[in-house]
Amino acid sequence: MACRSCSTDTGGVPKGCKDNGSCGTGGCGNKLEVFDWLANMQPADHTDKFQWIEVRFKNSRKDYYHNKSNLSLYTGDLIAVEGSPGHDIGTVSLTGELVKLQMRKTGFNHKTAEGRAVYRKARENDIQKWKEAIDRETRFMMHCRKISKELGLEMKCSDVESQGDGSKATFYYTSEGRVDFRELIKILARDLKVRIEMRQVGFRQEAGRLGGIGVCGRELCCSTWIRDFRSVTTSAARYQQLSINPQKLAGQCGKLKCCLNYELDSYLDALSDFPNTQIRLKTKIGDASHFKTDIFKKTVSYTYDNAPGVIIPLDIATIQKVLKMNKEGVLPDDLQSLIEERDKLKETTPKPTEFANVLDEMNLSRFDNTNKNRNQKKRKKKKRHGNQNNEKK
Fold first, then answer.
1. pTM value?
2. Domains of the chain
3. Whole-angstrom Cα distance, residue 37 to residue 251?
């Protein structure tokens, strides 16, 4: 949802609320935002407002915090929350009753968990320290890459997230295996003068943090709305009749694209009506084996073992008929004869009644074209008669 100030001005120029995504509506660029459709609703039992809030940090990291002081917080507010150690600065992404639903979805139990506290709304000096810490993140990341290369560590530092007070920096890295980064932490803590925390992420999470544009021309799904990364296998491509080409099936993370799972359920439902491709069709001229399946046309192509160049497409009903005949011990002459019988049945089957278009009959201008045609015919006759009279003279 976007606010009214996000509409266009005269001349097609966007107005913009100048809040850079913190306008409270969650539609100006907040990543993985959730629209609070329960914001103006009071609890049924007239109890106090739910004290837990959802806070968003850099990229897709979110966490829940306990608003013990009952501060008046709204979506988009910058607040100071409890860190480890010190305090951190985050943006309020959700408040009220909808936080309960989000907790239930993520499996967070606020009754048993020791939630961190909300300190206050961010002051001017808090925001200034937070921005200074953000400005140092790129320098920290490049320094980490340099030191890890000198130590010969097989890892890649992909992102750095600084805590709001600047006392801690979390380094996100990817690696194929385990990495002994104890010496790396010592050097980084000595050079950067901050507390260091190393956190390993997967290649999909790395692409989600960095972002980018996919081959479809849109922003990556992992950096916009995907929160849980499900495993993608090559069987998903096989079910969709896609060629197993790693260059086309792999995304920017180097793994199989997440979008291969989007239409997989529809393909599995469609393939449930098709017969088993391992079963061979038996005829008098030879056995036929499966060649390819066309899900959209709902046909399966077969080839004879003794004539592999002959490809015969059959519909599902014809295949079921042949399988039933083979089960009873009856062999058809050939598959082509079954197709000819099917075509003859279609020709003899009466066509459904076609209804007339009554809308044209009620149109007031339906006689205009007929009058024009009559006038044109009269003009042509006059010209023809005139030409004949001139020739006679």
1. 0.63
2. 31-122 (no CATH), 131-201 (3.30.300.20), 208-270 (no CATH), 281-348 (no CATH)
3. 34
